[in-house]
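testing teh design pipeline on a random one, pls ignore if ur not involved
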């Protein structure tokens, strides 16, 4: 059995520093074998920089996934091409920097990780379902496959869960920054949760200072989204997976404050 820890969107300095302070001990005490972190909001004004990726790797990330903000920071483009374990969604055009699939070789077993972007209420990109099928062909020699679908709509994420049920080990959603309470094992043996939630300042609106978002809703005027500062929380999910069959045996939602 292997234990995977998937962590939801890391927001700003608060999120990155909290990961650094709690993840190493959590990995040890919980016996985590592999950790996937969605890091696309780690930088100021969203996106992620190479330095922040390095910080998440040092803190215990094995793979960093992203989403709609992945190309916000130009300094990430070459890093995305050079680093196999920082992903951009696989359904972006092939001409964009980076790749959407990677393989972590653990010796006894290989773990494939796929990053996808939703299309409902989001900027247009390629079809994530078609991209998932292509990715699975690339990962045919991996016994464990994990999928991060970075998407707004719960329906799109649940549909992807059932679409991939029995074909991958776990499907987890990211992007909304709010954890859902539907962690479960689908009938075919795939671990699933619609959204992992956020790692950042708890008293915030999705990581941003509430007063900014209130003003935006009140006036409909554009505003700069400054991240809130305050007590942090980490949201994620543990998936216990049989590395021989690739089936998920147990799912546990995690929130560390
Ligand atoms: Fe996002």
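output:
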């Amino acid at each position: 059995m292997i234990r995977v820890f998937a962590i939801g969107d890391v927001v700003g300095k608060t999120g990155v520093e909290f990961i650094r302070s709690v993840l190493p001990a959590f990995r040890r005490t919980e016996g985590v074998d592999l950790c996937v972190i969605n890091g696309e909001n780690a930088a100021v004004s969203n996106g992620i920089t190479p330095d922040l990726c390095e910080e998440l790797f040092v803190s215990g990330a094995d793979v960093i996934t992203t989403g709609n903000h992945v190309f916000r920071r130009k300094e990430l483009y070459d890093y995305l091409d050079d680093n196999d374990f920082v992903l951009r969604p696989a359904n972006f055009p092939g001409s964009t920097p980076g790749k959407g699939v990677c393989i972590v070789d653990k010796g006894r077993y290989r773990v494939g990780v796929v990053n996808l972007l939703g299309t409902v209420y989001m900027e247009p990109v390629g079809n994530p379902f078609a991209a998932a099928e292509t990715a699975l062909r690339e990962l045919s020699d991996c016994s464990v496959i994990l999928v991060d679908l970075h998407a707004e709509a719960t329906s799109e994420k649940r549909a992807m869960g059932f679409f991939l049920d029995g074909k991958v080990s776990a499907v987890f959603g990211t992007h909304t920054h709010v954890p859902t309470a539907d962690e479960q094992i689908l009938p075919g043996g795939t671990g699933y949760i619609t959204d992992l939630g956020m790692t950042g300042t708890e008293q915030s609106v999705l990581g941003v200072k509430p007063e900014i978002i209130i003003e935006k809703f009140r006036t409909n005027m554009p505003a700069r989204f400054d991240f809130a500062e305050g007590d942090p929380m980490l949201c994620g999910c543990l998936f216990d997976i049989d590395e021989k069959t690739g089936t998920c045996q147990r799912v546990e939602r995690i929130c560390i404050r």
